[in-house]
Specification:
Helices cover 68% and strands 0% of the residues. It has helices at 2-30, 51-58, 65-96, 102-111, 117-130, 143-149, 154-165, 169-177, 182-193, 195-210, 214-219, 227-233, 249-280.
């Protein structure tokens, strides 16, 4: 038993190092000079270029870091809050209401999960273009994300439905006896009990929206662009305004490290609720 446990720890440690290696390589590349990229592979440069981080954070010569980060966080807040709440309400309805055709409607909602996002991207773009919701000035440029978020997302509707279906029916009956309506029962009784589920949904939503590259590239102008897009399209050598034969990979890696840190910090503080939400999701209904 002890040998098996030791083998498991060693195996998990090796896997952890494998998953961490890309981040380590990104950090090493960020400390290199451009000419060092074409030489033999080295784990640490002879002279680490720590000033790359200073140039990214405290000058606009490399990339508009804080402007891109601000736009990214605004979109993340819009999507996370709206989808989390709307999906919770829809999931609560599917879990606690009894109505004709409920199962058929729930099946249709789940069927939308089978459609890849790339399939619906062109119809969405055409629809938003015809509605005149593209290339709008700030703050109306975030309207596409608000429109997508209001109906909720099928995967999180399913997740909330399973969670709420696992809660005792006596809670709902007691709330109704005390005079609570359906919405008050949801808001004051069921939603507070779903704290771990809400945290889990928020983590997924924040991460998916934070790292999204295609949607901001399609729907936002360069003035309101997110950091993920700016990192790949506008990062340049300080003081150089023309195309270089060697791409600014060290600066892109520097931006990438700073871009990833908020995700790591966010998950670090929320991981306990994340694991609790995964462990306590109801499986009946």
């Amino acid at each position: 038993m002890k040998i098996g446990r030791i083998a498991l720890v060693i195996g998990m440690s090796i896997l952890g190092l494998v998953f961490l290696f890309p981040f380590f390589w990104m950090f090493v590349t960020a400390l290199k000079r451009p000419e060092e990229l074409s030489v033999a592979i080295s784990f640490m440069p002879p002279v680490p270029q720590w000033h790359h981080f200073y140039q990214v954070l405290f000058t606009d010569e490399v990339v508009r870091f804080y402007s891109g980060l601000q736009n990214t966080l605004i979109i993340c807040v819009i999507v996370t809050v709206t989808v989390c709440m709307s999906s919770a309400m829809v999931g609560f309805g599917f879990a606690r209401f009894r109505a004709p055709g409920r199962n058929i409607l729930f099946t249709l909602v789940l069927a939308t999960m089978m459609l890849p996002g790339i399939v619906t991207m062109i119809p969405q773009y055409v629809m938003l273009s015809q509605l005149g919701l593209l290339s709008l000035p700030w703050p109306f440029c975030y309207m596409p994300w608000l429109i997508w978020s209001i109906p909720g997302w099928a995967i999180f509707i399913f997740y909330y439905r399973q969670y709420f279906a696992g809660l005792p029916k006596e809670l709902e009956d007691a709330a109704l006896i005390d005079g609570c309506g359906r919405f008050r029962t949801f808001w004051q009784i069921f939603l507070p009990l779903a704290g771990p589920a809400v945290t889990t949904v928020c983590i997924f939503l924040f991460q998916w929206t934070y790292t999204d590259y295609v949607a901001p590239l399609l729907y936002l102008t360069s003035e309101n662009q997110t950091l993920a897009v700016l990192m790949m399209t506008e990062t340049s050598y300080p003081g150089v305004k023309f195309t270089q034969p060697i791409p600014p990979v060290p600066y892109q890696m520097t931006v990438g490290i700073l871009f990833t840190l908020p995700l790591i910090v966010f998950f670090f503080f929320a991981q306990r609720y994340f694991m609790q939400g995964l462990a306590t999701t109801g499986l009946k209904g």
